[in-house]
Design brief:
- It is a single chain.
- The protein is α+β, with helices and mostly antiparallel strands and 166 residues long.
- It has a domain at 48-161: 3-Layer(bab) Sandwich (minor pseudopilin epsh fold), CATH 3.55.40.
- It has 2 helices and 8 strands, in the order ααββββββββ.
- The strands form 2 sheets. Strands 3-2-1-5 form a 4-stranded antiparallel beta sheet. It has a 4-stranded antiparallel beta sheet with strand order 4-6-7-8, covered by helices on one side.
- The protein is elongated, with a radius of gyration of 29 Å.
Length: 166
């Protein structure tokens, strides 16, 4: 009787056999993958741009809280100043009472401010008692996403919302 080891046949490669991939098949698969990627990629980049606006607005509110905390801690006025650079990009600075900036943060490319009446620079002051001058403005992306930032004059706290009524 034959053992199992003797009955197992090992595959052999024969020239001209049809097993495996052809170059033409690989090219077709690569073309299909490229077409799918070309359709999907714009939706990812749009999502990243909206994420940049959201992140920028939240970072700005965080820096406003830091300015408010400094005003309370040092018993001096601190400001957040929104401005437009010479190259057209927007940024904001944390300044002391004399307007001397100690930190400047640029907004990502394609993100800009919209202030009441288009006023630039736009100042939000924070006072030693925790209050502020208050303010309302928005951040907008090239793709049209707009987030509103509101600073309460009594509490000095800022918040981000999707529409102006919230």
């Amino acid at each position: 009787m034959a053992s199992k080891a003797e009955t197992v046949k090992t595959p052999t490669f024969r020239p001209g056999s049809t097993a495996g991939f052809t170059v033409f098949g690989l090219i077709v698969v690569l073309i299909l993958l490229a077409a799918v990627a070309a359709v999907i990629m714009p939706s990812f980049s749009g999502g990243l741009k909206s994420l940049e606006v959201t992140t920028s607005a939240r970072d700005l509110v965080t820096h406003m809280r830091a300015a408010r905390s400094r005003a309370i801690s040092y018993h001096r006025v601190f400001r957040v100043v929104l401005h437009e650079e010479a190259d057209g990009r927007h940024s904001y600075s944390l300044t002391n009472d004399y307007g001397q900036p100690f930190k400047t943060v640029p907004l990502p490319e394609g993100v800009s401010y919209s202030t009441p009446g288009g006023q630039m620079p736009y100042l939000v002051s924070f006072y030693p008692d925790g209050s502020s001058s208050g303010g309302e403005f928005s951040l907008r992306s090239e793709r049209g996403l707009q987030l509103f930032v509101t600073v309460d004059p009594v509490t000095g706290l800022g918040r981000v919302s999707r529409n102006n009524e919230e």
